[in-house]
Design a protein that fits this description.
heterodimer, A: alpha+beta, Phosphorylase Kinase, domain 1, Transferase(Phosphotransferase), domain 1, six-stranded antiparallel β-sheet, 16 helices, 19% helix, globular, B: mainly alpha, 74% helix
Chain lengths: 943, 193
């Protein structure tokens, strides 16, 4: 047929179809009078049409409905209780046993396939056989007009979804429900039954607070099965690839991507439910299912602590461990999960939550308030986090070994376990500090060194007579020794750090190959027989610490790349292999240890907020957390008999204060606060605050505002994860960068009196924004592989690069708006520079990091000079430099200042101890932040 | 099509065409929702209640669309046409894979029985696909109407709106196409048997 022929056929056919069949022959006779071929074609089609069922290329629908008084077997329907995608639920009377039951009738067409129905029954029977208090009891099943139905216990109460409609749950209640759910799941999983569609709608809370998991086996019903494998014996073992089951938002990544899903998919869904119970909102919720699925595949939900600041970190960690994208990284079983949750709960399981609720409201805020005093924090944390007797990590069994007012770190034990050495210093890595020794159990601390040198990692020699440690001077990483009893410290081995003995005559240590490329090597004490054990792949890789396994076959390594801690690694001591990572993926690992029997590896891992001690079986095992709570634990010394470990338990705080003629006034209330701004009238202080954790550079903060006079102290921009901000000179507007739901930095402008919603600067991605009057904003953003300073109009137009060279940070704009202050890096060295807004070449200011602020009258320059690798402006000094009229700077050497001494030598300079200083309008008034760190050594029993 | 106002979609399409990746990101959810509607519709035809399979189906469609190079949607009609074509491709591909698997004695398949070939019970996607190709040769627009109606799940009115023709024309083309397609498919079945 040609298109032309079809055109004619179609016209005649269309008209014929409009007619009643009996009228068609006459019509065709007229229409096709001169074309018998046309007539034949249309007639064929018309006869074909008689066979066209009405459903051809059309849709249809059908549904079973039971009416009042209808009978299903022994049951009489009393009323319809609810309906949904999985069918209707009726209340029915069991006449035989004189009780009321629930009957769920599934849509008939859901199981047209007898094979599928059989499998559903098999699943449902298995679920029924579970007979667990946290799983809905199923009494019977049958078929009604082709529709399968289930008879189960009738429950009074509501679904968790209904409970969540009223908001988040008290932490105790969430844990209670979580434990019950985990128990039910564990029972099912043990029988090989996976739910696959766990969600708040499928968790029923009875009136007496008992959780019942509903709809076990139903997800399976919708799973198809091809004729080819109908006899395959693997039916109960998992969802075959390619089929997405479950509800978007609670689906695991493997379900979303159609991969094989096993019981660990339930654990993921469980995590999403627990998150929702605690946070009051879904872990993965985007405007569309597609975005939600994408988020499940790629994103981590916002930390609960951002929503519920008082969440116990251990609980938060449990939730987030359920969310691991890789099922292997999740809890291995629901019973493990239940166990972890139970450890958080007060008194094991009690369905009666009245008392528990009460506790959750009172105890938890109290714990945070008390956290400023370490001892108290630990005592409260004990009540909160750990209950099961004599479990690893139970703080009631921790023994405090040192009681310094400041900070001691990096413990190591003598081979006989009777002497303890450590560094007294702020940092857990390299820091100025002194080596101490203490005889256990009750000797006082004895200071062995007195040189104010940078030190790290003291260890005892095998005979216990000497302590070797790393001493740093001018980037020379050398090993020094000091006798335990009497004598002076002296340099022993050049270019050897993180040293340990592997035998009385043999050593393992870190050696710089070139630049800062640091490898792990082994050699004799006289540096003979030297060979490499591990050389980091990148030339900025530094393997800083190493620990030999008791059998001498493996080295556990701590390494850094480009200044960032990496997960730890185990390599063969024989060398030649980069071995395997241990611990958690992406979790920086700074210290390690072996149990004396070589079966466990202990690690200090930074997960989310701070450092805690973890351990895992060697060679095969998953990391498990040993310590938790508001403190951070770093450094591990195992007792020679393996019964305990000694670690440094620390608490860090940072507070904002305002200094004026009357002294210091504390502004911030809790947490880690930094980066203050003082309004021009000096009545308002703005600052950033990390609600959990102590790493200002690691993430997003909240921007808070406080009145110096009133009690007002609150978030300025609730809901924004602020990564940087600046105020306009008149204090009426704030420009800030915040992470959007995809983790991208967006720039916003808001008014500080909060009239009107914040306005996003469109089409711009970046951070560290500052006002650049008139009408522009300067910010920091990535382009290609490097970062630069950019400027853009406040409406998002005319974005252009401000600097031709790379800029690592933008730290401010000069008071005359002509200079952008930032730093750039070359060959590992940072240099503070002023970049003219005109685009002229930058002016070097300092060899090193720093911040410049001008008083509003431009009479003083506040020049903060940072120090150390973690200088979040808390450290260092601020030089207040008087300026000549009309000058922006004091006389600066042509290539910038080279040292603080040059700055300090300027005429009229005053010094403020502290780096995070913001000047007020009046002389002598400024806002600042101050960090306090307290660390002491504790012994933690391991069994 | 109330949930899909034409203006934003057209705007997004235009911006995407101009190289704005962001608009693709915003467009895909819209496409996804449309696809979901289509998939749900498709599966409801012979297997009511298979919403979960339809999610799987859509997810696959979504991933395919997301993977594609920015294609040029000229207008809304083109956009819907692409959705419908995509759906057709996927269904037919599954059907072909299923057929191949049956021939080779049972490789595991995805989404198999949702599109089973049981004669008289559900649509033979391969035969329909072939028949539609035949119809395209006779009248491309008529074939597109079927695609939009059957694979795109659009109503007569929606299809008319998209193609800028009268509903009466769509209805006429739809009715005659059904008859013609049915005849073609029956013929194919006859040949197979």
């Amino acid at each position: 047929m040609t298109p032309e022929q079809w055109l004619r056929v179609r016209e005649v056919l269309a008209e014929a179809l409009e007619l009643k069949p009996k009228d068609r022959p006459a019509f065709l006779g007229r229409a096709c009078a001169s074309d018998p071929l046309l007539r034949r074609e249309v007639e064929t089609l018309l006869s074909s049409n008689d066979e066209v069922r009405s459903s051809f290329l059309q849709s249809s629908e059908s549904r079973i409905a039971l009416t009042l008084g209808a009978r299903l077997g022994d049951y009489e329907i009393v009323k319809l209780v609810g309906s949904g995608g999985m069918g209707e639920v009726y209340r029915a009377r069991d006449a035989r046993l004189g009780r009321d039951v629930a009957i769920k009738v599934l849509p008939a067409l859901l199981s047209r396939d007898p094979e599928r129905l059989r499998r559903f029954e098999q699943e449902a029977r298995a679920a029924a056989a579970l007979n667990h208090p946290n799983i809905l009891a199923v009494f019977q099943m049958g078929t009604y007009e082709g529709a399968p139905y289930l008879v189960g216990e009738l429950l009074e109460g509501g679904t968790l979804r209904e409970a969540l409609a009223r908001g988040s749950l008290a932490i105790r209640k969430a844990i209670d429900y979580g434990v019950q759910t985990a128990r039910g799941l564990a029972a099912a999983h043990e029988k090989g039954i996976v739910h696959r569609d766990l969600k708040p709608e499928n968790l029923f809370i009875t009136r007496d607070g008992r959780v019942k998991i509903l709809d076990f086996g139903l997800a399976k019903l919708t799973q198809r099965q091809s004729a080819a494998d109908s006899n395959a014996p693997t039916q109960t073992e998992g969802t075959e690839p390619g089929v997405v089951l479950g509800t978007v938002g609670y689906m695991s990544p493997e379900q979303v991507s159609g991969r094989r899903a096993d019981h660990r998919a339930d654990i993921f869904a469980f995590g999403a439910i627990l998150y929702e119970m605690l946070a009051g909102r879904r872990a993965f919720q985007k405007p569309t299912s597609a975005e939600t699925m994408t988020a499940i595949l790629n994103d981590d939900p916002p930390a609960i602590s951002q929503i519920v600041p008082l969440i116990p970190p251990a609980l938060q960690r449990i939730v987030h461990r359920c969310f691991e994208k890789d099922p292997d990284q999740r809890f291995h079983s629901a019973s493990d999960l239940g166990f972890a949750l139970e450890a958080l709960s007060d008194s094991g399981m009690s369905s009666n939550t009245a008392k528990a609720q009460d506790n959750s409201r009172r105890v938890i805020p109290w714990a945070i308030a008390a956290a400023s005093i370490l001892g108290l924090a630990i005592a409260v944390a004990t009540v909160l986090y750990v209950r099961s007797p004599a479990k690893v990590g139970d703080r009631t069994n921790w023994v405090q070994l040192t009681n310094f007012p400041d900070s001691v770190t990096q413990p190591a034990l003598s081979p006989d376990g009777r002497m303890l050495t450590f560094v007294r210093g702020v940092s857990t890595f390299v820091d100025t500090g002194e080596i101490y020794i203490k005889f256990l159990p009750s000797g006082g601390p004895v200071q062995l060194t007195h040189d104010n040198m940078l030190k790290m990692g003291p260890v005892f020699s095998p005979d216990g007579s000497r302590i070797a440690y790393t001493g740093l001077a001018a980037f020379n990483w050398d090993t020094w020794v000091v006798p335990v009893l009497a004598g002076h410290a002296e340099r022993w081995l050049p270019n050897a750090s993180g040293l340990v003995w592997t035998s009385p005559q043999h050593l393992m240590f870190s050696e710089i190959k070139s630049g800062e490329h640091m490898a792990i090597v082994t050699a004799t004490e006289s540096r003979g027989e030297s060979r490499d054990i591990y050389v980091p792949p990148g030339n900025r890789g530094m393997a800083h610490r190493s620990y030999l396994s008791p059998d001498g076959k493996w080295a556990l390594l701590v390494e850094m790349d480009n200044g960032e801690w990496l997960p730890c690694r185990v390599v063969p001591f024989s060398g030649g292999s980069s071995g395997n990572r241990v611990g958690l993926a992406n979790a920086p690992c700074t210290n390690g240890a072996w149990s004396p029997d070589g079966k466990w590896i202990y690690l200090s891992l930074h997960t989310g907020e701070t450092f805690h001690i973890w351990r895992q079986r060697f060679p095969e095992g998953q990391p498990e957390q040993i310590t938790s709570g508001p403190t951070e634990e770093e450094g591990i010394a195992l007792a020679p008999n393996g019964s305990s470990l000694i670690t440094s338990v620390g608490l860090r705080q940072r507070t904002i204060s305002v200094h004026d003629a009357n002294g210091d006034h504390r502004i911030s209330l809790e947490g880690y606060a930094y980066w203050p701004y003082l309004s021009p009238d000096e009545k308002t202080v703005y600052y950033r605050i990390l609600k959990g954790g102590t790493s200002p550079f690691l993430g997003a903060s909240e921007l808070w505002v406080a009145d110096t006079a009133s009690e007002r102290n609150e978030p300025l921009l609730p809901g924004f994860a602020v990564t940087g901000y600046d105020l306009s000179k008149d204090g009426t507007r704030v420009v800030f960068s915040a992470l959007d739901s995809d983790g991208k930095g967006r720039l916003w402008i808001a008014s500080t009196d909060r009239t009107g919603a914040p306005r996003q600067i469109p089409n711009v991605e970046g951070d560290m924004p500052y006002f650049l009057p008139p009408g522009e904003v300067v910010f920091h953003a990535i382009e290609g592989n490097s970062t630069f300073a950019f400027r853009v109009r406040e409406d998002g137009t005319e974005k252009r690069k401000l600097t031709s060279g790379q800029v690592t940070q933008v730290v401010g704009v000069s008071s005359d708006s002509r200079l952008v202050i930032g730093d750039s890096e070359a060959n590992g060295r940072y240099k503070l520079k002023a970049f003219p807004a005109s685009g002229d070449p930058p002016v070097p200011i300092l060899d090193g990091l720093g911040f410049l602020r001008w008083t509003p009258d431009q009479r003083f320059l506040y020049f903060s000079v940072g120090s150390g690798m973690n200088s979040a402006r808390a450290y260092g000094r601020t030089y207040v430099i008087p300026l000549d009229a009309g000058q922006m700077f004091p006389p600066i050497p042509p290539d910038g200042f080279h040292s603080e001494a040059e700055i300090a030598a300027l005429p009229g300079v005053r010094v403020i101890e502290g780096g995070d200083v913001f000047p007020g309008s009046t002389p002598g008034t400024y806002a600042f932040s101050r960090q306090t760190v307290q660390r002491n050594l504790y012994r933690i029993p391991l069994r | 099509m109330a949930e899909l106002p034409s203006q934003p979609v057209s705007e997004l399409l235009a911006r995407w065409r101009d190289g704005d990746e962001e608009s693709l990101r915003r467009l895909l959810p819209v496409v996804y929702n449309q696809l979901r509607r289509l998939a749900h519709y498709q599966l409801r035809k012979e297997h009511p209640g298979h919403t979960l399979q339809s999610t799987a189906l859509v997810h696959e469609a979504y991933l395919r669309l997301a993977r594609q190079e920015p294609m040029l949607f000229q207008n809304r009609a083109h956009f819907y046409a692409v959705c419908a074509q995509l759906m057709r491709q996927i269904l037919v591909q599954y059907a072909r894979r299923q057929k191949a698997a049956k021939r080779h004695g049972g490789t595991r398949l995805t989404l198999d029985d949702a599109f089973a070939f049981n004669k008289g019970q559900s649509m033979d996607m391969i035969a329909l696909d072939d028949a539609l190709d035949g119809l395209t040769k006779l009248d491309a627009q008529q074939s597109r109407i079927v695609e939009l109606r059957f694979f795109g799940g659009l109503s007569i009115e929606e299809t008319a709106d998209i193609l800028s023709v009268s509903p009466a024309t769509v209805k006429r083309h739809w009715t005659t196409a059904r008859v013609w397609l049915h005849k073609q498919i029956s013929k194919a079945e006859h040949h197979d048997a």
